Prior knowledge:
The chain is an alpha+beta fold. The protein has 17 helices and 15 strands. Among the domains are: 3-179, no CATH class; 185-339, no CATH class. The chain has helices at 41-46, 57-63, 131-147, 185-193, 197-211, 213-216, 222-247, 297-316, 319-327, 329-345, 354-368, 372-385, 394-397, 403-417, 422-432, 440-451, 456-466, and strands at 3-4, 11-12, 23-25, 35-39, 68-69, 75-77, 80-83, 86-90, 96-104, 107-114, 129-130, 153-165, 169-179, 249-250, 272-273. Magnesium ion is lined by residues 257-258, 267.
Amino acid sequence: xxxxxxxxxxxxxxxxxxxxxxxxxxxxxxxxxxxxxxxxxxxxxxxxxxxxxxxxxxxxxxxxxxxxxxxxxxxxxxxxxxxxxxxxxxxxxxxxxxxxxxxxxxxxxxxxxxxxxxxxxxxxxxxxxxxxxxxxxxxxxxxxxxxxxxxxxxxxxxxxxxxxxxxxxxxxxxxxxxxxxxxxxxxxxxxxxxxxxxxxxxxxxxxxxxxxxxxxxxxxxxxxxxxxxxxxxxxxxxxxxxxxxxxxxxxxxxxxxxxxxxxxxxxxxxxxxxxxxxxxxxxxxxxxxxxxxxxxxxxxxxxxxxxxxxxxxxxxxxxxxxxxxxxxxxxxxxxxxxxxxxxxxxxxxxxxxxxxxxxxxxxxxxxxxxxxxxxxxxxxxxxxxxxxxxxxxxxxxxxxxxxxxxxxxxxxxxxxxxxxxxxxxxxxxxxxxxxxxxxxxxxxxxxxxxxxxxxxxxxxxxxxxxxxxxxxxxxxxxxxxxxxxxxxxxxxxxx
Length: 495
Ligand code: AMP
Ligand code: MG
């Protein structure tokens, strides 16, 4: 494959100097007739890339995996993991190829092409991704970023007429995704499972030194470093789970190979933002047991951290130390969660009954499947209006059928807010309760248009989702309830 020389990016090797144990050289397989589907101007600028790149045929070709950027060195990495609670053995980047890491104003970033062809870890897969799932990952990563949720990012989507066979024939696409690191819990599990403890040690060192410099200063030997990593990832995962639960995000496939060591949302597959609140919602059509139901996510985060700890045990050595680090999850998660939910309610201080206030609200919403994003946005406005009007909470109670129960809750809430400045509180709430989330039907509409060659909705939806707390009056319809047909959308792992 010819290398291009038009662009000078400052490439670094993937995994620093860890070498072949971690990743195999693997050039992307060219896709015919690539086209731009969408690109992310906000991330482009943040990475210090020029607008000109996205008008250039050779950069297009590189982002589709059809040619190589000068200096890049394409690699696929190996990992293993627990899938649906069962040890699945070796997996790996079956359809993701890293071009390498680049120096950017955001620090070192790994640029990975998802769907760029088979790798040594593709097993029976074709190494490809379809347009539908690539648009979903592109939009959702940026929607999460817009909401302030830790996540990998997405720079662009390219498409091709090449056929890809799933439940039906679809066309191929490639998402260029970007993250400081795509290292997963499963990477550690992999090397521990094959008894290559030296590799686990090197990977710990790499992650801590490259991505957690504040830990590197204090964790001086291998044992301290592994323990510090476990503690840090425990904290980040607890924080991530609190973010997911607060924004109403269901990941759908929380296997350990989809868990980021940096605590980022990773691998967007059958995810879904809740429309009507349903604590037991299962977004993944293939998840028959409901292992990854919305309400179970924090618990699964903890389960997955146990797998990580298990892989680090040969280095940490003392079980008590590892258990202690894991145990902190039990107070970290509820604290993060309460903090996020108090923000949503506009409560700037903490009171003992706050947790009950939140739980009672969620159980009312759950009983009536009240629209989750709409409830919070309306509540934010109502609080502001309550300083002038005694009917301020009408739009909120309109969302409920059983008015007595919600009226009683609103009364408790108003009592709780009594000492706060309503206008300021409302403003704060509007900064954390989004007007726009990537509801399933919005993604679906943009995908339907894209399948017909019209990519305009993908691009305009991206802009709205990147600033989801702004009003965007021209897109009012995207802030409303999901239409009836949205409940029929089935999302499976097939992507
Ligand atoms: P996921 O459930 O998407 O995280 O995928 C689990 C594993 O299967 C990972 O190792 C993926 O890289 C791999 N995989 C998923 N889809 C494909 C595909 N179409 N071709 C090759 N590997 C795949
Ligand atoms: Mg995955």
